[in-house]
Write a structure and sequence with these properties.
Oligomer: single chain
Helix content: over 70%
Radius of gyration: 19 Å
Largest sheet: none
Number of helices: 13
Shape: globular
Strand content: under 5%
Length: about 300
Amino acid sequence: MTAQNSATTPTTIAVGVDGGSGSVLPRGALLAGLGVVSFSLTFPGTVWGLDSFGPWSLVALRIVLSALIAGALLLGQRVPFPDRAHWPGLAVVAGGSLIGFPLLTTIALQTSTTSHAAVVIGLLPLATAALGALRTRRRPSRAFWAAALAGAAVVVAFTVQQSGGALSAGDVYLFAALLVCAAAYVEGGRLASVMPGRHVVGWALVLCLPLALAGAAVALAYEPWRLTAHGVAGLVWLAAGSNFFGLYVWYRGLAAVGVPRASQLQLAQPLLTLFWSVLLLGEHLSPAAPLAAAGVLVCIAVTQRARS
């Protein structure tokens, strides 16, 4: 860890997590919100990417491209290797948010619609907050938990209604993706309090590169692929938008405002995903969407104001 990193990051983190600064909290929430917007395009981008590649090829290629971007930036900035104590946490981030979640959701999206898959995102904030509370030994207030549970219930009810009340064959993959991603977010938020968020994402991506290169070579040899405009655009967004930019601003937001509060901003993600699904994929949107959006926004406002 460089002296510059340790001198600048902790001060911001301490103020943001405690909620005692009116200037840091909005900035951290804005960064986390940008991450949510980026993530909301992940499922539509995945559907586009599957137009050109198989699920294993798509996941491997998105990691390779984003790892090359991250590696080039780390090399250009001459960022030193992280301390040995940080590598296990980086492995959790890499295995959860960069490999496990993309692979499991990509497989699920072969049989599930984006609206049904959004159930994962609806439950992810609650799972992240719960794991974060256990990991950091912090106890959010009852008002926080009540609003978080209410928001999750609204999102689940809305997404289940969108899918016609039936469970898809990909539900096992979706729930597994939920768990590994929540663990990665918690660990990434912890690391972002002791090193810059861009370094957390960058080194986690670099850690994935050897495995992703091997996986891409094997997957491209065995899975059929054909280049289309949608397929290439989806791959580029998944690599540069979701994997790199989205995670970069997300982990900075997690560090600034704390895991429980930042994670609740993701309650808006399923609704954003449904919006993109209508706009980019032509899926039908239920008239219940505005009501669900209003309920989720109320829950987000409560969780952002609730103190630990």
